[in-house]
Structure formats: C-alpha cells, structure tokens
Amino acid sequence: MDRPATRATPLLTIETLQVQFRGSPSRVLDGISFSLAAGETLALVGESGCGKSVTSLALMGLLPSAAQVLQGNIQFDGHALLQLSERQYADLRGQDIAMIFQEPMTSLNPALTLGEQIAEAVMRHQRVDKNQALAQALAILQQVQIPAPELRINAYPHQLSGGMRQRVMIAMALVNQPKLLIADEPTTALDVTIQAQILALLSRMQQHSGTAMLLITHDLGVVAEVADRVAVMYAGQIVEQGTVSELFNDPQHPYTIGLMGSMPSLASRQGKLATIPGALPLPADMPAGCRFATRCPFADHRCDQQRPPLTALGVLPGSHQVACFNAPLEQNFTLHPTVETMP
C-alpha cells in the first residue's frame, strides 16, 4: 500500500535518538531519526536485535531502568515526550499513543474478563462510569469482529484462540481512538490465514479512525501489504528509508538488498535463496564506521573508518534516503555481489 508522500506537519518526529544500556560498550539506538504523519503507516524493519522494539519502548516511555537516553528528541503532537513526567506520560499512554504487543497472552490479564480489561482502559482516560465503559468495550469488540461479542465480553483470555486474543489487543489499543498506534510484530505468532485477517483488520480500523501506525516487523511481505513508508534498521541505526515502492523497486543499501534477496517467492525458483554472510556485530565489537561493513560486499576503507550519513537520493527532500558511501550502487558497481546461499 503506497500513498503519495505528504508534506503535512508530522504527528511524530524522532531526531538523533541515542539509547544505551548500563554496562554496554555501545549504543543500542545510535542516532535514529524518522517522522510519521497522521493517518500514515511507517514500517520499521530489521532482524532480531537491531533495536526495533527498544524504539517502540522509548516512544511509550517504557524503557527499562537499565536503559538511558543519551541524546535526542521525540516530538509527538506538540509534546516533547522525553521532557514529560511519569504522570504526564501515563495520561498520554493509552489515550493518544497505544501499543499492540507481540504476544497477547503475556499482555492480557488472565484474572480479568475481556470486558473488564477494555473497560478499565476506557475509564482511565474518559469520564464515564463502568456501565458506559462496558458498552464501549462491547462496541469495539463488534468492530474488530469478535464472534458473539455479547458472550465473549465475559470470557477470559485463556478461553480464546490466538487470533481472537490478538483482535482483543487491537480493540484495547483502539478503544480510546489514539492518534498513534504502535504495532510490535502483531502477527508473528499467528498462522498465515489469521495473519492476513489481522492485517486486513488493522488497515480497515486505521482507515476508519485516521490513526497513524508504526508497524514493527521483520516480515517484508507484511510491509508490502500495509505500509506507506519503510525505515530499515541495522545494529541500532536506520540505514535506508523511503516509500514502499522506492525500497521494493530500487533498494540501495547493501543490507536492504540482502533482505530483499532472502525473501521466498511464489514464482518458480531459480537456485537457492540468498543469505547475508556473517552476523550482527556484538556490542563489544561494534565497528567504528559503517556497522554493516564487515558483512558488505561493497565495503571500502571509508566504510571501516567513517559512519555514512543518511543522504537523500530522491527528488523530494527526505523521501528516499540511504546511509551508504557507494549509493547509488548502480553508478559505482556492476551489481553482482557474492552472497552465501542456503544449504
């Protein structure tokens, strides 16, 4: 899903955010910057351990006590989030910013019914009594297409299937009509058929409410289905970002190209799937320059010593950006890099 780029004032702007865990020799987030407009979907993509979930926790004000924000600014709808008190953040969280976590069974309270949990979120942020809150809970369960919602509202989480629990999580996140929804791997634990239903539901609910969505995923198929723009993360840094069509039709960072090459296809396969050699660098061995340099077939001496900045490639300022000294790659190389293949 690819909409025209918007020049409207962003709802969310993150600038040069740096986060480091106590005792770690390197930053888990190292100067990430991106923006998100109202009604837009931005997919944050990368392999496990790259910093996607830490980014979401920083946005929600839920970083663990061992994490420290060293630098950066997060602006959301006129609020400087890093300057808010815990009470101010709690008022914002669940009302204007909501999150769908990866595993519903660890997020839902097993001792409360679905209705009680959703109604609690409503009463925390709206001036309504319990009966009015339960009525809103029933209405949102109907909107997310829970079968027999008048019965399920009294059910407990363990009595639902995985797909229905995820629908309840979506209902809880959207019941207060937030301006920003953070979805952290919302379909990872679900089978393919249920994944498609959940993605369609998220898109439909988003279009109905006008909510912006930050979608955190490692699944490029999901990105192609629901996102407007994509930011690719590697080892705590954003290495490429642009519209879905820009990144899928003209990927420019070697890491993005590697991700695209590793995607399985329904078309007839010619040979084996490509893989990216090596592994994410350990915090103690983080390269001084480009963090992908040790795995990159195009790396040169600059990449070992200097960090490449995010540089615009497209005509529109801030549209297609890539952090690579050798981009555009087609102007500097014949694109046949050597890659390892699956056994």
Automatic annotation (TrEMBL):
Enzyme kind, highest EC tier: translocase
Superkingdom of this protein's organism: Bacteria
Topology term for the membrane: Peripheral membrane protein
InterPro entries: AAA+_ATPase, ABC_Ni/Peptide_Import, ABC_transporter-like_ATP-bd, ABC_transporter-like_CS, Oligopep_ABC_C, P-loop_NTPase
EC number(s) given by UniProt: 7.4.2.9
SUPFAM superfamilies: P-loop containing nucleoside triphosphate hydrolases
GO biological process, one term: transmembrane transport
Catalyzed reactions per annotation: a dipeptide(out) + ATP + H2O = a dipeptide(in) + ADP + phosphate + H(+)
GO MF entries: ATP binding; ATP hydrolysis activity
Pfam families: ABC_tran (PF00005), oligo_HPY (PF08352)
Protein name listed in UniProt: ABC-type dipeptide transporter
Organism of provenance: Rouxiella aceris
